[in-house]
TrEMBL record:
Pfam families: MGS. It is an enzyme of class 4 (lyase). One of its GO terms (molecular function) is methylglyoxal synthase activity. It catalyses: dihydroxyacetone phosphate = methylglyoxal + phosphate. Substrate binds at residues 11, 15, 37-40, 57-58, 90. Catalyzes the formation of methylglyoxal from dihydroxyacetone phosphate. The lineage of its organism: Bacteria, Pseudomonadati, Pseudomonadota, Gammaproteobacteria, Alteromonadales. Residues 1-136 form the MGS-like domain. Keywords: Lyase. GO terms for biological process: methylglyoxal biosynthetic process. It comes from Alteromonas pelagimontana. InterPro entries: Methylgl_synth, Methylglyoxal_synth_AS, MGS-like_dom, MGS-like_dom_sf. GO terms for cellular component: cytosol. Belongs to the methylglyoxal synthase family. This is Methylglyoxal synthase.
Length: 136
């Protein structure tokens, strides 16, 4: 695959977990084009040296910006470490983002266990697997 674009997003209480996960899979992430919401993207770039395209903070529209990438078939996978125990004011945006992944058949991981399985799949970062995109 010429350019595999992944989005990295994390709620405040999950940012350390996502950073640890990115560092654990740094070699894989170096092969991806990375987009992220504002604060999360800044932390990832600062800690890992990865190039990250940063959108707005989630509550300020960043979730919708990433959702637009999904709707435009410009995102290959979403890693969204969301915090189910701390409701956020932008919970409807989070639900909409996860819904778009289901609508457009985009792989999504919401915790480190699922994220580990996704990036260690032999199909990740290969041209051997092209997910079926619905034709609405």
């Amino acid at each position: 695959m010429s350019e595999y674009t992944v989005a990295l997003v994390a709620h405040d209480h999950k940012k350390p977990e996502l950073l640890a996960w990115v560092n654990k899979h740094l070699a894989v992430m170096q092969r991806c084009k990375i987009v992220a919401t504002g604060t999360t993207g800044g932390l990832i770039a600062e800690e890992t040296g990865l190039e990250v395209t940063r959108y707005k903070s989630g509550p300020l529209g960043g979730d919708q910006q990433i959702g637009a990438l999904i709707a435009e078939n410009r995102l290959d996978a979403l890693f969204f470490f969301w915090d189910p125990l701390n409701p956020a004011p932008h919970d409807p945006d989070v639900k909409a983002l996860l819904r778009l992944c289901s609508v457009w058949n985009v792989p999504v991981a919401c915790n480190s266990a699922t994220a580990d399985l996704l990036v260690t799949s032999p199909l990740f970062l290969t041209e051997d697997y092209l997910p079926t995109k619905p034709n609405y």
